[in-house]
Amino acid sequence: MSAYYYTDMRDLFVLVLFALGVFLVCYCRHYDDRGLPVDDPQQDGVGRWAGRERLVSTWAGVLAICVAVFPTLPKEEAPISDWMGVAGIHIVSAVFFLSLTGWIAYRYFPMSDPSPKHKRLYKGLGWTIWVAVLLAIVLGFLKQATTIPSLLADHGVLIAECLAVFAFGIAWFVNSRDALSTNSTDTRNGTPPAAEDGE
Description:
The chain has about 200 residues and is mostly helical. The chain has one domain. The chain is built from five helices and two strands. A two-stranded antiparallel sheet has the order 1-2. Helix 1 (about 10-25) packs antiparallel against helix 2, helix 3 (about 85-110) packs parallel to helix 5 and helix 4 (about 115-145) packs antiparallel against helix 5 (about 150-190). The longest helix has about 40 residues, at about 150-190.
């Protein structure tokens, strides 16, 4: 996917990564001591879970921006020693960025969604992201070792990266939809979301 930097889609590719990075850095939810999202950041017990998710999302956002700023290797073949430069920063940033999105989906999204089916979905999508990242790493090293055709490795890495991105997109969509639905219901009922459980 990063090879699009060297095509006519470069500006769009960089713009999307920057937008995603800024969004993740600015993104923040507040949780009570039970790990449940709340609307009021001044509520007692708020801070522990919010700080953890904020830290993870901030690092994910910074790494997304690094992926855009430091491009990958050009299309031409290059020895693995060249990875220690700009492309090395790109690869490390991409790996950790996708891995952190997997952690957000696996660990934090289930907290804000009471549906057991959705909780299983988030955890499954988190694992999907991690497996896709691992597959991309393996294919990248196999390509450098010339044990598999370069074209096959490139397509495999692209598919793995797309799988990870789409998995996080699905997790975010489902979680956002549930949050909006919950807030809408609570507003109509005049009840704060955090006050329903355990009261």
